Amino acid sequence: MSPSASQTLLAASNQTLVVTDLIKNQVNRRLGNHHHTGRINAVAAITNAYLTASYDRTVAIWDGRSRDTKPIQVLPEAKDSVTSLHIMATCGKDYSNNIAIIRTASVDGFVRTYDLRKGVLQNDDFGSPVTSMTQTKDGRCLVVSCLDGTIRLLELETGELLNTYSSHHTAGQYGLDVDVLADDTTIITGSENGACALYDLVRADVVKTLEGPARRPTCSVIAHPEQSSVVIAASYDNSTVVWFRAVV
């Protein structure tokens, strides 16, 4: 996760957030030492603020400008490990004005939406541990991957369940990432059989199955932000594959 063109956020094994400068090849800051009591599962960034989601069931918000080593706010509502983070932001001078919406996913089966401007918390129960989520590029829908093997498409404005996807990927034991291709027509997910499945977002049928060298579950997938033909997949066997012309 990159808060700027030159910076990258890394979750260290000692429950700390490491802010690195890619151009200068140096560590700028370390945050969270002795704060989180479990591993950091997800990070997010915006101008002047960093967020960390942890196995300890909390999300911490860090001031990106201050040298203070304590978070400026903690979100403690999750009842189990927080697996995924998403931010909807606007322009402003400080973190409270920059961040309009924080969305978190948890193993307790809930996606929680924090509207910081209105002071409102919305809870959406998916009935199964949520391992990953992503938003469609048009900002209208949320794609949620659950441990029961079903990916769900939720309309954000109404909360209506629009579609489900489950026919061509294997799940149940591992947390699998999900993403949406740049043209907003296709969902990609990892699979416990080592492949990646691509589903048509509207019809919910499979578009393609990508079978590479992975011999263990493919747990992490990410789509190119601008080119729908490029996706990256990583497996528990330590292999990473860049797929070109993944959808033709």
Written overview of the protein:
It contains 1 helix and 22 strands. By secondary structure, the chain is mainly beta. Strand 9 (99-106) and strand 10 (110-115) form a beta hairpin. The longest helix is centred in the middle third of the chain and has 4 residues, at 95-98. The model has no long low-confidence stretch (mean pLDDT 88). It is globular, with a radius of gyration of 18 Å. The strands form 6 sheets. A 4-stranded antiparallel β-sheet has the order 4-5-6-7, with no helix packed on it. Strands 8-9-10-11 form a 4-stranded antiparallel β-sheet. Strands 12-13-14-15 form a 4-stranded antiparallel β-sheet, with no helix packed on it.
Tell me the helix content.
under 10%
Give the low-pLDDT segments: none
Question: Which secondary-structure class do the elements indicate?
Answer: mainly beta
Strand order of the largest sheet: 4-5-6-7
Rounded to the nearest angstrom, the distance between the terminal CA atoms is: 28 Å
Average of per-residue pLDDT values: 88
Number of helices: 1
Order of helices and strands: EEEEEEEEHEEEEEEEEEEEEEE
Which shape, going by the Cα principal axes?
globular
What gyration radius follows from the Cα positions, in whole Å?
18 Å
> What's the total count of β strands?
22
Strand content: over 45%
**Largest sheet at a glance?**
4 strands, antiparallel
What key attributes describe this structure?
single chain, about 250 residues, mainly beta, four-stranded antiparallel β-sheet, 22 strands, about 0% helix, globular
